[in-house]
Amino acid sequence: MTVDFDADRISADSLTSRRDYLRIAVTVSGGLAVGSVAIAGGLFHRHGDGTAPAKLVAERLAPGESVTFTYPGDADRATAIRLRDGTLVAYSSVCTHLACAVLWRADRGTEGELLCPCHEGVFDARTGAVTAGPPPRPLPKVLLEERADGIYAIGTQRSGQA
Ligand code: FES
Fold first, then answer.
1. What does the pLDDT average to over 43-71?
2. Predicted TM-score (pTM) of this structure
3. 33 exposed, middle or buried (CB, 10 Å; 0-12, 13-18, 19+)?
4. 30 Cα–ligand 1 center, Å
């Protein structure tokens, strides 16, 4: 009798374990599905597309200098840099990997680099292309225009757009 009782208990425990396993599998699968839909739907922040009025970002930038600003929206962080040869560039400061803040490091590389400290992502200062680390795409560009009274942000380009 005692042996039958133990066998029934073991059998009931196995059923519970199977149910728990299925519940975990369904929960994890559902979470992955919801996460995939959120990413595909663009729910996570990325640099803003679209248009905004031209915005003054600096009166001037000398070679080697940079300035941070937001454009086109208040959450769209960006960095403008005057490279040592005088070329003016600007990129989103939102990393294309997991949206950490990208920092300008004038002391790295031959003409400086844009570094994401979260996972050591590195972007080329002249093109915004990924040169190291996990970011999957180049940094989106912010288009600049030099006018008599300063440097203006006038538009954005999506990652990889020429
Ligand atoms: S968030 Fe920038 S490298 Fe991961």
1. 84
2. 0.72
3. exposed
4. 26
- 27-37 pLDDT per residue, tens: 767 666 655 55
Q: Which residues on neighbouring strands pair with residue 156, listed in sequence order?
A: 142
Q: What is the residue type of 78? A: A
Q: Is the CB of 95 under 6 A from ligand 1?
A: yes
Out of 116, 130, 139, give the residue to mutate to test ligand 1, the one with the largest number of ligand atoms within 8 Å of its CB: 116
Q: Which of 98, 120, 100, 93 is nearest to 108 (CA)?
A: 120
Mutation test of ligand 1: which of 46, 92, 93, 100 has the most ligand atoms closer than 8 Å to its C-beta?
100
Q: Which CATH class, in words, describes the domain spanning 51-157?
A: mainly beta
pLDDT in tens, 95-132: 999 999 999 999 998 899 999 999 999 999 999 999 99
